[in-house]
Amino acid sequence: MRIDKYGQVIFTEKDLVEHYLKNPEDKIDNTLVETHIEFPIILGLENVPDIKTYTESNISINQFDAINQSNWYMPQKYKDLDIAKHILELCTNDSELQRAGHELLLFQERNMFDLLKYLKYLVDTMRENNIVWGVGRGSSVSSFVLYLLGVHKINSLYYDLSIDEFLK
Question: What's the pTM value of the predicted model, to 2 decimals?
Answer without folding.
Answer: 0.66
